[in-house]
Amino acid sequence: MKSLWFFDDVDLFKVLCPHKFKTYKKGHDFDAYKKKDYIYFETDSANKVYLIEKGKVKIGYYNENGDEIVKAILSRGDLFGEKAILGDSVRDEFAQSIDNSTSICPIGVTTMHDLMRNNQTFSFKVYKFIGLKFKKLERRLQLLMFKDTKTRLLEFLDELCTDYGYDCQETGDHVIKHPYTQKDIASLIGTSRPTLNILLNELKEEKYIDFNRKEIRILKTSA
């Protein structure tokens, strides 16, 4: 299925990374990060956007009580730091590597604006992507604020089904092959890993889902 995090199902890394363009290739390098390394902090200068070549990156912020709020966990082909394109000069979130071999393609805002200026269709897709991403993040934050944990999990599973799911013709199940660990999912729905395990097993007992490390199945009997 079509994912909101991609432009028309195209890996952004293959489309945007400056090493693909002769004009920018010479001076372009990739940045490597280990697990728990920060790409940027809140209040840092916002003068770049970033593409993930490999690995995973956590985007979040800290609330007034000092609690970490995870907004998104991104993987290969995903774009982040995009508010810099819109004119933000200071970060209002942090970006942290959660893999030991994360590779990032940094793109200066000026370079990004040049690419957009030279291709109106591409520019439109960038703004469309940003709008869809903001809408998705706003919905997730609303879930964290107003819904109970089980409801948050159910709606997150629906989101995963849209982004990463397909119908299994043999069984009629909705099969979700996603890039998240259980720890990732727990962070994204604002709960602990033990609580997530309890809820997943409850849904399994209710014959709503079946799951393993590699996939989640929303069973036909629950549809």
From TrEMBL:
Gene Ontology cellular-component terms listed: cytosol
InterPro entries, per the entry: cNMP-bd_dom (IPR000595), cNMP-bd_dom_sf (IPR018490), Env_Response_Regulators (IPR050397), HTH_CRP (IPR012318), RmlC-like_jellyroll (IPR014710), WH_DNA-bd_sf (IPR036390)
HTH crp-type domain ranges (all copies): 147-222
TM region(s), chain numbering: none
Domain (Cyclic nucleotide-binding) ranges: 12-91
Gene3D superfamilies referenced in this protein's UniProt entry, alphabetically: Jelly Rolls
GO molecular function, one term: DNA-binding transcription factor activity
UniProt keyword list: DNA-binding, Transcription, Transcription regulation
Protein name: Crp/Fnr family transcriptional regulator
Native source species: Pontimicrobium aquaticum
